[in-house]
Amino acid sequence: MTLKKESVDPALFALFTDLPRESVVEVEGSVHRSGKSRRGVELTPTSARVISRAESPLPLGVVDKVGAELATRLDHRTLDLRKPAVRAIFELRSSLLQALRTAYLRQGFLEVETPKLLRQGAEGGATLFPVEYFDQRAFLAQSPQLYKQMLIGAGLERVLEIAPAFRAEPSDTVRHITEFTSLDAEVGYIEGADDLRSILETVLVEAFRQVRRELEERGNPLAGDVPELSAPFPRIPFSTAEEWLGRPGAEADLGTEDEKAVGERAVREFGSPFYFIIDFPTRVKIHTFYAQRKDDNPRLTGYFDLDFRGLEIASGGPREHRYDRLVENIRTAGLDPALFPGYLEAFRFGMPPHGGWGFGVDRMVQMLAGLPNIREARLFPRDRYRLDP
Ligand code: AMO
Hints:
Helices cover 31% and strands 21% of the residues. It is an alpha+beta fold.
């Protein structure tokens, strides 16, 4: 809009100069081409109506170059989201979700929704959120793990769920939040973990191509950050990762710094942003009672992580589909099989070999958009301290 004092009605000129930034106005006027404006057109107003006058001062600048602290930005998120650079992240997120969904459906997956109010968790007691459920105690779902497996027992063969998952993560890190979006897949009649990995690769190669194309069409500045992928992704045995870390045979899970160090080496050696860490030892996955142990080497599971440039994005593997061994695994994990009646029943009346994975959408957006903190990848993030807005 051009506001030259000499070409605009004085009352209108006064209205605009007095109007606080970010107010909503309806303007009428004449539009003409202009080489000076960014959009190539300028508007000379003839009348204006203030629809919503913004309060002043703003708690957070929208057009200012000066960066605000993340906490301030999240406290005033509706203003923060007006910034084009922030909006670009959520265009990427929307495009990624859509592209992943399309790619999975093309592979024959059925999209499902499972309960988020549960009697029992699947991912360990430490991160369960209890909920008062009338006169019973329930928990928020940490993952759809048990239900996606039950649906394989129901004969659905390939299921996909994109839904919130809740974890009472007490630690304040840049890669953990208490409410995240998990993309879960489960596949029946598999022969081994490679069947799972090859579906995951195919889906990601296709989805990334689509996201990049869409963002380019929209002129989104993040388009160039979406890499062209090629399958297969490198596979690094867990034991090799431990050798790289200088602690062969330690059989301890990889911490944040370990993942980063392995990531640097993997990307350098293989030149692929994605790589699998395969064959996790049983000792590392002991709490994951549903993970199948290898028959020929019970010290190993066929479990894998999928990492992207040093951050775990997904994890999964073949499940234990044999009832007796599953019950034994539940006991070994220190749990009572009686806590899982509905789940275990699904294994008593015909359950094919199956497996799947959980994929963290927020971490993927964080990495693609180059965000230092996972909170920036969600519109209204939740963490140990943040419940508002
Ligand atoms: P896991 O616990 O490894 O596996 O979770 C799968 C993926 O979900 C993401 N994720 C998180 N993202 C943000 N904040 C968190 N607090 C958080 N916790 C997990 C990560 C992780 O790789 N049931 C299994 C999956 C399976 O075997 O199918 C599971 O939940 O990106």
